[in-house]
Specification:
The structure holds 2 protein chains of 2 kinds. Chain A is mainly α. Helix content of chain A is about 65%, strand content about 5%. Chain A has 2 domains: about 1-30; about 45-170, serine acetyltransferase, domain 1, CATH 1.10.3130. Mean pLDDT of chain A is about 80; it is low at about 1-5 and about 15-40. Chain B has a single domain, classed as Alkaline Phosphatase, subunit A (3-Layer(aba) Sandwich). Helices cover about 30% and strands about 10% of the residues of chain B. Chain B has helices at about 1-20, 110-120, 140-145, 190-195, 205-220, 240-260, 275-290, 310-330, 400-410, and strands at about 40-45, 95-105, 155-160, 185, 295-300, 340-345, 375-380, 390-395. Classes of the chains: A mainly alpha, B alpha/beta.
Chain lengths: ~170, ~425
């Protein structure tokens, strides 16, 4: 009995050591490359990692998949690409595209109630969804504070804001 | 102590003497140093490549009855293929302006984009220009916006293009010290507005909601530093101007959906072509924003590569559209009597035809750098322009358009002489 207990104890210690060793070896990998489970996106550790302007196609298709959780059709992408090329001020056309997407019934925008039931989770999920990173402590506090202090702020307004911000144009 | 005070006073005096002359009673900074001849200029690139033989030469009759004197009839063999729309002008524009009959696109490949770039930058390019990036030298828009008051915002400078491809890149250059900051608003109206189903029913926010969105966006933008090495995101309007522009675009889209802007707004039936639509929407921009500088082009004449009679027809339709543009200027309280219109093809077409024969037995025309493909006309009309003035000698080049526009709008002397080799078209100016 004693031998069995010792064996079991030793086995537990051995397994724990392996787990710790494994996680220790992979700490850096885990810190650098989180995987966002919903859409298998690479997660940034900070906004400063984003250095490249999205192309038209990237902007439109990413915005679509971020809002509808599905791929945009070629026809729709071509149409929006033509509109994008046809206007000099890209911020305006991006704004118009986002506004059109947001108004579509199938866009995945949570209700105001869901947002206000758990604001910290909403903020974290929203940053992960659009910025592919977690908000830092200040951002998490500030956005939560803005939502709490402004009863008229809706999830749609927050989605619109993040999708028309500078960071959303870069990867 | 005295020395310190002296240095302080000297520094303040020097700074003051540099800044004060540029702050005008109106509050404008960096005012153009010259006198304005007019407050608005519209340049119409009568494009697609037009030979002088068919335009001012009237080889097939007077195809441009709104611009040129004469009632010469259309050549009988091609007349059935040419739509003659009613002449709108009580008197042709040449009588109230200056007509250069032997203008030149003197150097560089006679390609549409090269020739557009030369016309809009004032610099010939003998090498092929990169098609997917802005031109290397500043455009007229950048000169205009940089060398005028900051109040002359992007809504005051417009490039209304009839085509996509490389043309949208002509609203600003890559030149150091100029670039997107001073770029023009660009629109290819037909492509943009035909996509309205994809842009229909945008979410609309109240002004209070917009203010909250702006507050949150300001916070988000404050947390992100735009990478300096990233590609330029292009020209942008100020938030207030962006709002005005978006309202305008939505209004036009709505008018198209409701039929307030019909398919054939001029009642010309199947003659309503791309050039006419471009001019139509350019007129809407003029009426809405009354810009100080607009460049607008037509390109349908380039059908000349494949069908000579349709090329002849397109010249007449372009003339009709051009007069509609002129009439819009003359009937707008702000623009009338304070605008100069400049009409010029970007280049001509070859003397010898290619082998493509049209339904009337006529051979088509390319443009491959021969002398005739370099010869064009140029017509100026409006405030401060000599009237009834025809210049029959070889005079003027397309690279003269930029210095001439700069002179009319009062900033010619603010542009480095090293940048522009063209001359002001003084023969046309009073």
């Amino acid at each position: 009995m004693k031998t069995v207990k010792l064996f079991r104890g030793g086995l537990m210690v051995f397994l724990l050591a392996i787990v710790l060793l494994y996680s220790g070896c992979n700490t850096k990998t885990i810190e650098d490359r989180y995987i966002y489970e919903v859409q298998t996106k690479e997660i940034y550790q900070s906004a400063s990692q984003k250095q490249t302007l999205k192309t038209t196609t990237q902007f439109v298709s990413i915005a679509y998949s971020d809002l509808f959780n599905s791929s945009i059709t070629n026809d729709k992408l071509n149409s929006l690409d033509i509109a994008y090329q046809s206007l000099g001020d890209k911020k305006i056309i991006e704004d118009m595209i986002i506004k059109t997407f947001l108004e579509q019934a199938s866009s995945l925008v949570p209700s105001n109630t869901v947002m206000r039931n758990d604001i910290p989770t909403f903020v974290q999920n929203t940053y992960l969804r659009f910025y592919n990173r977690k908000p830092n402590e200040f951002e998490a506090w500030k956005v939560k504070d803005m939502i709490e202090k402004n009863a008229d702020i809706t999830p749609k307004m927050i989605y619109y804001t993040l999708m028309t911000s500078d960071e959303y144009r870069y990867y | 102590m005295k020395r310190k005070q002296f240095i302080k006073n000297a520094a303040l005096t020097a700074a003051g003497s540099m800044v004060v002359p540029y702050i005008l009673p109106s509050g404008r900074l960096f005012a153009a140093s010259g006198t304005r001849r007019a407050n608005h200029v519209v340049v119409c690139v009568f494009g697609g490549g037009v030979r002088n033989l068919e335009s001012v030469g009237k080889a097939e009759g007077n195809l441009m009855r709104n611009m040129l004197n004469g009632t010469e009839s259309i050549s009988s063999d091609i007349a059935p293929g040419v739509t003659v729309l009613p002449t709108l002008a009580p008197t042709p524009l040449q009588n109230i302006g200056t007509l250069y009959k032997k203008f030149q696109y003197a150097s560089g490949p006679t390609g549409h984009y090269n020739a557009h770039a030369a016309l809009m930058t004032g610099v010939y390019s003998d090498q092929s220009i990169q098609l997917k990036q802005p031109p290397p030298f500043p455009t007229i828009f950048e000169y205009y916006r940089k060398h005028n008051s900051p109040t002359n915002n992007a809504l005051n400078a417009w490039w209304v293009s009839n085509s996509l491809g490389p043309y949208p890149f002509l609203n600003y250059s890559m030149y150091d010290g100029y670039g997107a900051t001073y770029g023009a608003n660009m629109i290819q109206p037909y492509s943009f507005f035909t996509q309205y189903p994809s842009l229909a029913n945008p979410v609309s926010f109240t002004s209070a909601e917009k203010a909250k969105c702006d507050m949150m966006r300001d916070f988000a933008n404050g947390q992100f530093k735009i990478p300096t090495q990233a590609a330029s995101s292009g020209m942008v309007n100020s938030p207030a101007d962006a709002e005005k522009l978006q309202t305008f675009l939505n209004r036009i889209m709505n008018d198209i959906v409701t039929g307030a802007i019909p398919e054939d707004p001029w009642g010309v039936g199947s003659s309503m072509n791309g050039d006419m639509r471009n001019i139509y929407f350019g007129m809407e921009v003029l009426k809405e924003f009354k810009p100080e500088l607009m460049v607008i082009n037509m390109t349908d004449i380039d059908i000349g590569h494949f069908d000579y009679t349709k090329y002849v027809n397109a010249i007449g339709l372009a003339d009709y559209a051009l007069y509609k543009l002129w009439n819009t200027i003359q009937t707008d309280a702000t623009l009338a009597n304070d605008t100069v219109l400049i009409v010029v093809p970007e280049h001509g077409r070859n003397e010898l035809p290619n082998t493509v024969v049209d339904a009337y037995g006529r051979k088509a025309l390319d443009h491959n750098n021969d002398q005739m493909s370099r010869e064009v006309f140029c017509l100026l009309a409006g405030k401060g322009i000599r009237q009834g003035n025809v210049i029959n000698t070889v005079k003027g080049e397309t690279i003269d358009i930029v210095p001439t526009v700069a002179d009319i709008l009062g900033f010619r002397t603010d542009i480095s002489s090293a940048l522009l080799s063209g001359q002001v078209l003084n023969d046309a100016l009073i």
